[in-house]
Amino acid sequence: MSTALPPRGRGTATNPHNRFAPNRSVVEDDGWFQEVPLTQGTEVRIETAKTIIARNSSPDIPFDRSINPYRGCEHGCIYCFARPTHAYWDLSPGLDFETKLIAKTNAAAVLEQQLSKPGYKCAPIAMGTNTDPYQPIEREHKITRRVLEVLLRYRHPVTIVTKGSLILRDLDLLAELAKQRLVSVMLSLTTMDDELKRILEPRAAAPKARLRAIRVLREQNIPVGVLCAPVIPMINDMELETLVAEAKAAGAQSAAYVMLRLPLEVAPLFEEWLHTHYPQRAAHVLSLVRQSRGGELYDSRFGARMRGEGAFADLLAQRFALAIKKHGLTQRGPTFNLDTSAFCPPGGQMSLL
């Protein structure tokens, strides 16, 4: 198992095999010394999307449709459960996931087409479910902003999950959506430790920047909650009560948490990360994960995958319940009773009843 440090600003140093590729490449040392690059640049490819609204029927998530403007995520969170999806594009879930990104530049136009179809039935669209809509490349491409402009024009409700402070750029759109009960936001808060954030989520916003985002959003009367995710045994689980308290102080109205998920290629990447940064703690962390996942590193069953089972998972649930009760936060998803009745494609006629 490699314990090489990742390039500066990246979550991992390796590119595990793409499980769909027929051939496997193995790096061998030929004896010639080569300088390891200190940085790894970001490459953005353009995709012309045919559809933009993804559907799901999962019983343990509070939405049935979502939009992801980007494939891959520059934040580089080592634990990201979306990493395995990069294999579908003949890319590695490892370093490729953070550095070889795909931007759906026509997302807003395709969204208009889908929302304008006669049979479309309105329900909240979730953004930030797979990759972060406010990752750094959004600053240049502005796909998320254009999608929000369409949703506002159509009076369509949307929920957003992000760990990017770039969301404050779109305060004008979010405030207008909030006035019509068409938006709610969940800020993902993983740790208050800047050094842990640096190695766990290299290019995500700093903890204080996320708390500031909560504060500013609430000042504009935008519904905001905090998502403590993921909770990692012996890495950040001891911060759970602190995260809830800090979010409440910043203005958060609700809270939720998700236990660490390690599907497919995420498991070996996370194990490598542990042995690189916490070698003396790695065995204990993995043991607690297995205790909470039926002896495995991951349990994909609906209902169990978000929370885990067993003594550690039960204790975590109890601690979270006590924390939100103490601080007066509600425990619910990010929908905040959004209004679906106002949906009306431009040029269409709203119902009189």
Characterise this structure.
The protein has 353 residues and is α/β, with parallel strands linked by helices. It has helices at 95-99, 107-115, 138-141, 143-154, 171-179, 194-200, 207-219, 240-250, 266-277, 282-292, 311-327, and strands spanning 43-47, 54-55, 65-67, 70-71, 100-104, 125-127, 158-162, 183-188, 224-231, 254-259, 330-331. The chain has one domain (43-331): Aldolase class I (TIM Barrel, Alpha-Beta Barrel), CATH 3.20.20.70. It has 11 helices and 11 strands. The strands form 2 sheets. Strands 2-3-6-7-8-9-10-11 form an 8-stranded mixed β-sheet. Helix 2 runs parallel beside helix 4, helix 4 runs parallel beside helix 5 and helix 8 (240-250) packs parallel to helix 11 (311-327). The protein starts with 42 loop residues before the first strand and ends in a 22-residue tail after the last strand.
Percent strand equals: 5-15%
What structural category arises from helix and sheet content?
alpha/beta
Q: How many domains would you count in the coordinates? A: 1
CATH superfamily label: Aldolase class I
Report the total helices. Answer: 11
Largest β sheet strand count, sense and barrel closure: 8 strands, mixed
CATH topology: TIM Barrel
What secondary-structure arrangement, pairings included, does this model have?
Elements (H helix, E strand, L loop, with lengths): L42 E5 L6 E2 L9 E3 L2 E2 L23 H5 E5 L2 H9 L9 E3 L10 H4 L1 H12 L3 E5 L8 H9 L3 E6 L5 H7 L6 H13 L4 E8 L8 H11 L3 E6 L6 H12 L4 H11 L18 H17 L2 E2 L22
Parallel strand pairs: 1-5, 3-6, 6-7, 7-8, 8-9, 9-10, 10-11
Antiparallel strand pairs: 2-3, 4-5
Helix pairs in contact: 2-4, 4-5, 8-11
